[in-house]
């Protein structure tokens, strides 16, 4: 018996040693007990603070803000047999792949976690060596966090079925493998390359406008397979997007590029097309989307996401700006630039604005109740174009402040310059009533359109917000730098707090602090976070005493 016991003890120790040597850890997630257990190379993977076991809140808090959606996905209860596969980076650690399976419904899931490079081969398409679809989307999602123009091109090989019939699948695979090799040779190491379907290839490059032409030139070259001369032709679709906090989701961007491919196919072999909204299929047409939008608020699909606002002098969290997001039941998270103009055209901005005010005030009240340190926390809500003149606005805002017992100034309203200048005299009366009712007031996008600075001294604002364009370009554009300096100086002279939008890294934050700016917000701290992610960010900021900022953009 003793020998058996010794053998089992030795086996367990050897297993742990092997896991450590291989830089792999085992994980077991038990949601009913709110417990995540880790065995193996936890410290090497940046998971040391969580080992040997931790709660879900601790797991979320250790994940980087940009990866907390992936952390939530790992913790989400799924059906037995459902696979877990995601990329996740913890604070102070490298990007790791979490793989596993749900063993019993709602009871536990288990698997392994290892550095991404350990699984490099499993993320690649076995035929071409390029990224598979899931990995391509994950990498593209990371790239879209950087404020840089990205071009995504998708190419569909014409007549693959004919090739399979004529050559057989094995020889047709040689054609696909050759095309993958040509694609890799045509683009530099900074390009993102993938085989995202049986006959589909994808390329994502930053700041390159000739990607489609380069792809076509590389792949539409003759090749000889099994004695046959083959001239591949492609249907090519492309789409461009600006990375950063307002970037569309990578899966949505890929959907748009593939929609452009379908449009290119309709033009015949070798066609090409760039994405446009007119391409949307019947099921997701503008008309259908408009119909969905009309009832989105009532169905609870519209929700505020919260972007942190940080005090530059010490990195302390000051508050959040609430930004509207639409979680469509079929299309997922729809970018604001896609539904806000539509909501304005349909006359839904009043309903949407009132909903955002209610939801944001309720969330602020919950945070204040749950956190003793949240006494000075603020939440800002944007008023849409023309909403300042909406009948009942003052009553709605003051009613929410009184209902949730919010301190004066904690619920802030952000109004753009252009909206004020439509009718400055009327706006001044509304703003005065809002201020008397306990609302804070911020002048948004300052520097982009104010017609007369004389009005600024007569309007009861307490905050100026510098437009993100000037902040992002102040390092390379002297004109932008002068505007930033001028706005900060003006705020100081008028005793107004100044918030800089578009802070992308610690260098920008330090420059703004040296100029005397009070607060900053932007992707350098965090993108707009779901209420759950914002709660984790809030907890983390109170524990650490400062919000983390990226060193470089």
Automatic annotation (TrEMBL):
<dbReference type="InterPro" id="IPR035919">
    <property type="entry name" value="EAL_sf"/>
</dbReference>
<dbReference type="InterPro" id="IPR043128">
    <property type="entry name" value="Rev_trsase/Diguanyl_cyclase"/>
</dbReference>
<dbReference type="Pfam" id="PF00990">
    <property type="entry name" value="GGDEF"/>
</dbReference>
<dbReference type="Pfam" id="PF00563">
    <property type="entry name" value="EAL"/>
</dbReference>
<dbReference type="GO" id="GO:0071111">
    <property type="term" value="F:cyclic-guanylate-specific phosphodiesterase activity"/>
</dbReference>
<dbReference type="InterPro" id="IPR048820">
    <property type="entry name" value="PdeA-like_PAS"/>
</dbReference>
<feature type="domain" description="GGDEF">
    <location>
        <begin position="148"/>
        <end position="277"/>
    </location>
</feature>
<dbReference type="InterPro" id="IPR001633">
    <property type="entry name" value="EAL_dom"/>
</dbReference>
<protein>
    <submittedName>
        <fullName>GGDEF-domain containing protein</fullName>
    </submittedName>
</protein>
<feature type="domain" description="EAL">
    <location>
        <begin position="286"/>
        <end position="542"/>
    </location>
</feature>
<dbReference type="Pfam" id="PF21815">
    <property type="entry name" value="PAS_PdeA"/>
</dbReference>
<dbReference type="InterPro" id="IPR050706">
    <property type="entry name" value="Cyclic-di-GMP_PDE-like"/>
</dbReference>
<dbReference type="InterPro" id="IPR029787">
    <property type="entry name" value="Nucleotide_cyclase"/>
</dbReference>
<dbReference type="InterPro" id="IPR000160">
    <property type="entry name" value="GGDEF_dom"/>
</dbReference>
